[in-house]
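Limitations

Structures in this collection are predictions, not experimental determinations, and the ligand pose is part of the prediction. Treat each record accordingly. The example that follows, with zinc ion as the small molecule, is included so readers can see exactly what is and is not provided: the inputs are given verbatim, and the output is the predicted complex.
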Amino acid sequence: MKNIYLCPHCGANLNPSVKIVLVAIHRGRRGLILLSPMPGNYKFICDRSLADSMDVGDLVKFQCPVCSADLTAPRDKEFAELHLAASGRSPRRVQFSRRYGTHATFVISDGEIAAYGDDADEFPQKNFFGV
Ligand SMILES: [Zn+2]
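Predicted complex:
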């Protein structure tokens, strides 16, 4: 079943093909970044000059490529947030760490949180306050 990621602000489909397409902003550089639609897969493709400027631990800002809204999660600035629609399910929220090299993703639905990534354990507060 295909996961469809949506901008929480304008509702645009952010993975019209396979990869999720976002704008990444870091140290004044802007570029397109392609992310895997599989939660827990942290392989990404982005503009080389942008990738070269990122060091582990740096906070990266993500924007919607359609409406340019800041995708930082409203209740947790360490994370970016997208909406995830799949047929036969109610929409969920997906939050992933904005820190380069921090592998933590949370898929949040009504009363339920699924954690992905090696570093998800570092965010135990998600289990209590993330919803
Ligand atoms: Zn948007």
